[in-house]
Amino acid sequence: MRQPFDEEGVRAATRALLLAFGEDPEREGLRETPDRIARFYREWFCPEPLKFTTFDNEGHDEMIVQEGIPFAALCEHHGLPFVGQATVAYIPDRRIVGLSKLARVVHHCSAGLQNQERVTGRVACYIEEHLRPKGVAVMVRAEHLCMAIRGVRAAGAATTTSDLRGVFRDGPARAEFLALAGRGRR
Length: 186
Ligand SMILES: [Zn+2]
Prior knowledge:
It is a single chain. By secondary structure, this protein is of the alpha+beta class. The chain is built from 6 helices and 7 strands; from the N terminus they run ααββββαβαβαβα. The chain has a 5-stranded mixed sheet with strand order 5-2-3-6-7, sandwiched between helices. Strands 1-4 form a two-stranded antiparallel ribbon. α1 (7-20) packs across α2. It is elongated and about 65 Å long. 23% of the residues are buried. The model has no long low-confidence stretch (mean pLDDT 93). Zinc ion binds next to loops. Zinc ion binds at residues 75, 77-78, 80, 144, 146.
């Protein structure tokens, strides 16, 4: 069960972690560190609520796509960031959404401890539920610091995940999206 975010608990745990590292939490450089880390995690775990304002669709029936949406998330296995870009597309039915909201959905769905597959699925799911489009497609490409700075140290390796729903599952919309979203690949 998820508990509410406990900022004081994070502060105390960070201090305990510094001690476990063999550090002196009272030395000048570290004195404010538990506080800074607790504030960072509060921001990370408790994002502002998302206002997903939609509008009547005035007959648009082509794909609406936003590419290169920058995002960052924290990997739940290592607590390290993964950073990259998302491409989000949908084909509207009765409603459309303000373009900035697509980027906001990506940020909203990246909060907390994540894996890339889940972020991808959450974005698709959110848009499907709140916009009821004919189809939604999400592609996420990210570099994981847990792969870059530890373990295999494969800096620069990118992981791509996608979630295609509705009319994007097959047929021309799928091909069109994959050609477009895959364009940024090297
Ligand atoms: Zn990881």
